[in-house]
Every structure is written in structure tokens, then in C-alpha cells.
Write a structure and sequence with these properties.
heterodimer, A: 13 helices, B: 2 domains, 14 helices
Amino acid sequence: MEIKKKTKKIRYTPYLLIAPSLLLFCMFIYFPFVKSFLFSFAVTNRRGELVKWVGLSNWIRMLSKPEFWGIVVVSLKFALINLVSTLLTSMIFALLCTRPGLFSKSYQLFYSLPLAIASAPAAAIWTFLFKQEGGILNWVLGTHFAWTQEANTALLSCALVNVWMNIGASFIFLLVGFRSVPLEMIESATIDGAGPFGKTIHVMIPIASPQIFFVFFLNIITSFTTFAPIRLLTDGGPSTTTTTLIYAVYKWGIQNGRFETSCVYAMTLFLFIFCTTRIQMALEKRTVYYQ
Amino acid sequence: MNERTQQQIQKQGKAFFSFIFKFFLGIVFIMPLIFCIFYSFKPETQIPVTPPTLFTKTPTLMHYAWVLTHMPFFTYVKNSLIVCFISIASQITLSSLAAYGFSFFEFPGKKQLFSVVLATMMIPSDIVIIMNYSLIQKLGLLDTYLALVFPTLISGTAIFMMRQYYLTIPRSLKDAATIDGCTDMGFLFKIAVPLSVPTIASLGLYLFINIYNLFLWPLLVTNTDTMRTVQIGISMIVTSERLEYGPLLAGATCCVVPVILIFIFGQDYIVNGMIAGAVKG
């Protein structure tokens, strides 16, 4: 009797421990996710209630519109600009900090600081820097752009704010990678006659490849879900030059009250993120060099 | 001897110049923030001036006064802090419980249930945000704290991070405690949780920065001034009809300075939290 009671207790405890978390996950992630998926095949009213099922017609209607593909292209462009700039800059910063030196904590703090700055104040600060008349950025570059209002520069402006905010986190991860390179390895490369550039390419980058790999995919996913800078700086415009998938989700769902269109964009966004993660997992097994 | 001192001096000189270069680069990188703080103390007439200068002979607090009088700024701060407090407390409690279940027990379906937790990290909250919004709206919960904290009550990252720590606690410790008559819950509260305080601190600071900085969700679920968070308050200055740069910068400064101080003093904890939270392999 005693033993039976005990085994029973051990059986139920872990489930009870996990249950509250799983219940919440179902409520605010899995349930709305399934609902978004289903509603992309339906027509809804302005309050987001189901009117009728329409099969694939939402998808067909939208995939045949150039507007949809324009939004996909903008999202990819935005991700590419973000990825390249963030990765390169944070890599340079991390390489500069690889060996702890004189007061290295001070500049390390500077390189990572913007990660503490939220997107709303960051957008506020950059709105000020982007000002056309007497703006600081125009003064530094000697240009006269209306950064956030011109079709050529609007996407670039949003990306710039995003890159500025994202470098910090990437820098921290890359620094972990570069610091894990054993000192003897760098020294023996020096003896073999490798210059600073050669050492970076042949020693530092291969050894830090797990972190570089992680940062690479992290930045793609972060760019896909960047919302605040776009909402605050350009509001998706001029015309649709800065309307990314996440902005389209908001625009159709909240501003236009068209939930089914919003759901199609949300599922497309999910598909992009899902594919990115799958590629990451597949490649990680094959290419990353672990020590 | 002479040669050696010379070499040493040369080496020190090189280290010094390398420091100057890296420090200067860092300053350039955070220049937008420095401009923001300095310009928030300048009178409106001196703001659109080229070439830009940091200092002014007539510093003023008028923009801060504007922020405090034109919007209930302290209410926004209060709301942000309440939301952060509820969310962080909930995440730490629930993730400790779940992580304890996933690390100290063997039970059927453990692997599958853990994948359910990890899979949540593949579905960013932004994808489901519209459906969550419509649910909150239907339940009539718009403009409530419950709505504000709803999607941040638990996260896969928190569970993953706590579990990673619990896995490092030796099993033998639990066996010994059980023999001494310690119950499962007793072990969690008397031994595992106290041991994990540094991890909890990392997680808490990491979550604070993330939750305090949230934008889209509070934007959707708040319509009244008494419920808005700091981020939404700032964004209202950015998108207002007549954009005034002084108040804009003063508001941004008020919003970022507390987080920056937390970041500076809790740096090591936050960095540890970020690294532990990053799922690899």
C-alpha cells in the first residue's frame, strides 16, 4: 500500500510541474497559431469572427497580386541589409576586443550598449538624426536627404536603426566565440608567418564558427520581425517601399480590419522563419566546426 | 637592459594607442545616444543648428517639464514597472517549476513535451499577435494589466535557461535529500531554488530589458492614457502631428537612462543570461 502510493506520487508530480507553463503556451502561442493558419482559408468580419470557409481562394487572390510579392521582396531586402551590416560590424568589434587589454571593459560596454535601448526611443533618437533641415546625419555626410520620406532611402533608414540596435547582441555572442580560440593556436599561426588578416581568416573564424553561424541566423529572424522602427519612422511608406511582412500583418489586421489577409501574411512570415530555422539546423550538422 | 626598457615602452605605447582607437570607435558608435542626452537640455532654438555642438551656454529643463506636463509620464512608468514585475515573477516561478520537472524526473512523454516547449521559440509572438489581440478584445480585456502581461507570462527561453542550470545540480544531492525525508517540493524550494539564485538574477535582468522594451503588443491592447507603457508614450511623441524635437529627446532620455544604468551595473548577469538563453544544437 505504502509503495503503491509513492510510485503514484512520482508519476504525477512532473506533469503538475509542467502543466501551468504548457497551458499558457497553448493559450497564447499554439491556439492563436492554429487559428491564424485556419483563418487564412476563411472570410472574417471586422471583429475577427468567422463568416465562411473559402478554401485556397485567399491565398490564390494574394499570391497573384504584385503587391504581395513586393512585400516579400522588401522583407528579403531588409533582412539582407540588416544581416550583412550587423554581421560585419559586430565581427570587427568582436575581433578588436578578442584580447582583453587596457580598460577593455570600457569600450566593450560601448559596443554592446545599444542592446539596452528599446526600439521606440531608438526610433525617436534617429528621427532627430535623420532630420532633413539641420539634421546631424545630413551634416556629417554632406547630403540633403529627407531620409525617411524618400523611396530610395526609407528602407535604408529603418535598417540603419535596426542594425544599430542589433550589433550589441551579435557582438556579445561573437566575442564568446573569438575568446574561445586557444592562445597557443594564435601564437603558432604567428610563428608560421600569418599576418593579422590571415590569422582572422584561417584561425579565428573557423574556431568561432558556431557563434558566427548562430549570429547569422539570429539576425535574419530578428529582421523578419522588426516592427517598431518601421512603424515609427516610415509607417510602411512612401507607398509600400518599407512595408515588410510583419508590417503587413499589422496593417491588414489592425488598421484595415481584414483578418484573413493579415493571417495570410502572418503564415507567410512564419514560413520564412520556419525555413530559416530548418536551414540553420540542417547546415549546423554539416558545416559547423566544433572543437 | 636599456633595450628591454625601450621595448617595454614601445609595447605600452602600442597598447595605449590601441586603447585610444577602440575607445574612440566606441564613442562614435554610441554617438546617437550622446547627442540625444545632450540635446535634450538645449533650448528649442538651438536644436536645428549646424555644425552640431554638444554643449550649450543656456541649459534648460523645459523639455523635461513638457514631457511631465503634456503626458502622464509617471503613470506610464508605473504601468511599465507593474507589467515587468508581474511578467518576471510569473516567468521565474513557472519556469522554475517546469524546469524542475524536466530535469529531475523521468516520465513518459518527457522528450515530446520538452519539444513542445522548445517549438514555441520557433513561433515568434509577432506571428500570432493579431489572433491574441482579437481574443483579448473579445474577452473585453483591452486596457487591463492582464492583457498587457498575457503573452509574457511564460517563455520557452526561461524554461530552457532554468533547465540548463538544474541539469548541473548533481542527482546524488536529490537522492540524499530524499533519504533525509525531503519531499519533491521541499527539494525544489529549499535546495534547487536557493542554488539557482544567480541564474534567476540573470534571467530576471534579461527579461526586464526585453519586457520593458516591448512595443507592438502594448500598442495594440492599450487605448487609454492610464494604461499605456513608457514605450507607447515615447512613440506618441514621435508620431504626433507637430513633431517637437526637444520633448522627443527628453522623453527618449527618460526612457533609456534607467535601462542603461541597469545594463551597466548588471552587465555580467545580462550577458550570462543571453548566452545561456541562446539555444544551440
